[in-house]
Automatic annotation (TrEMBL):
This is Protein-glutamate methylesterase/protein-glutamine glutaminase. It comes from Methylogaea oryzae. One of its GO terms (cellular component) is cytoplasm. Its EC number is 3.1.1.61, 3.5.1.44. The keyword Phosphoprotein applies. Involved in chemotaxis. Part of a chemotaxis signal transduction system that modulates chemotaxis in response to various stimuli. Catalyzes the demethylation of specific methylglutamate residues introduced into the chemoreceptors (methyl-accepting chemotaxis proteins or MCP) by CheR. Also mediates the irreversible deamidation of specific glutamine residues to glutamic acid. InterPro entries: CheB-like (IPR008248), CheB_C (IPR035909), CheY-like_superfamily (IPR011006), Sig_transdc_resp-reg_Me-estase (IPR000673), Sig_transdc_resp-reg_receiver (IPR001789). Residues 160-352 form the CheB-type methylesterase domain. One of its GO terms (biological process) is chemotaxis.
Length: 359
């Protein structure tokens, strides 16, 4: 089956380059290009593309306004083409909130060389976007060989005694919104929460800030040496693996710029292994929507260490990759729709004797 792609960008250079890259790929075809959303709207009706690539700053109607209308009236898989800047990261997070499946950066300097260098990544993003489940939005509401977590963090010989509870979350494609939905449903007296979301480093700070404004929990981008406190969430920075460690009686954050694991840094496997090593049976973990296998092996280690584990079910995932792999390995205790997971976690924490957490 050929993936039909419509490119929407006000730059003729970008439209031509993306068209060329797409048409060079096996099983993929650029069926048209549009310089603005109004023309794109008519082309979508006529050509019925499988994937739309969408710029943000365009004449007549900006990409976010168009995306909001599109996801309400005719939901379809959308890949955003954005610029990796602080301002751009806020825009991209808003696009994901509106229903875009994923994003890829435009190069800052030499556009032609940059786009050509990103050809493989663009093609992979389009293939992944085409597989995503897209729903009508309700208002409001050289590839390195994959490494295991051994490359960064060895397995522990034994666990240190503790009764302090901890929650670990891992996600990738579709995860920014899934994580938001989970955290907004967790009470302020939740145990400390560690989150690894596959995301470039320019995005993790704004992502944490956005969540902090939406949740009753305190959310921040993790920093080296942070003490993990109840009611606080620590987001892995895009440049480092997030690792749980112990300092005396306290859980603390350590950051590791070691090699990529499963093609990712931060890696969910590294986070999960560290939680298995340090927290063991006092931990709960969830693996949410995402492409690939990262987190599956780490979740199995968590379960084997006595942690209780959850996976998002296929029906509620944007991409049922990471949860599927974790389930297949036998590392998952419960498979649940996304919005049911927080309630079950709260019930579990209550049964474990975590403070005065509400059920």
């Amino acid at each position: 089956m050929t993936i039909k792609v419509l490119v929407v960008d006000d730059s003729a250079l970008i439209r031509n380059l993306l068209s060329e890259i797409i048409n060079q790929q096996h099983g993929m075809k650029c069926i048209g290009t549009a310089p603005d959303p109004l023309i794109a709207r008519e082309m979508i009706k006529a050509l019925e593309p499988d994937v739309l690539t969408l710029d943000v700053e365009m004449p007549k109607m900006d990409g976010l306004e168009f995306l909001e209308k599109l996801m309400r009236l005719r939901p379809m898989p959308v890949l955003m083409i954005s610029t990796l800047t602080e301002a751009g990261s806020e825009t991209t997070l808003r696009a994901l909130e509106l229903g875009a499946v994923d994003y890829i950066s435009k190069p800052k300097l030499d556009i032609v060389k940059g786009i050509q260098a990103y050809a493989e990544e663009i093609a992979n993003k389009i293939r992944m976007t085409a597989q995503a489940k897209v729903r009508k939005r309700l208002v409001p509401s050289d590839v390195p060989r994959a490494q295991s977590a051994d490359a960064v963090l060895p397995k522990a010989a034994g666990l240190l005694g503790s009764t302090e509870k901890l929650l670990a979350i891992g996600a990738s494609t579709g995860g920014t919104e899934a994580i938001k939905e989970v955290l907004m449903r967790m009470p302020p007296d939740s145990p400390g929460i560690l989150v690894t979301q596959h995301m470039p480093e320019q995005f993790t700070g704004p992502f944490a800030k956005r969540l902090d404004g939406l949740c009753s929990l305190s959310v921040k981008e993790a920093e080296e040496g942070d003490r993990i406190l109840p009611g606080h969430v620590y987001i892995a920075p895009g440049h480092s693996h997030l690792v749980l460690a112990r300092r005396g009686a306290n859980y603390v954050v350590t950051l590791d710029r070691g090699p990529e694991v499963m093609r990712h840094r931060p890696s969910v496997d590294v986070l999960f292994r560290s939680v298995a090593n340090v927290a063991g049976k006092n931990a709960l973990a969830m693996i949410l929507t995402g492409m690939g296998k990262d987190g599956a092996a780490g979740m199995l280690e968590l379960k084997q260490a006595g942690a209780y584990t959850y996976a998002q079910d296929e029906a509620s995932c944007v991409v049922f990759g990471m949860p599927k792999e974790a389930i297949a390995l036998g590392g998952v205790d419960e498979v649940l729709p996304l919005l049911e997971i927080p309630g079950r976690v709260i019930q579990r924490l209550k049964s474990m004797g975590h403070g005065a957490i509400r059920v």
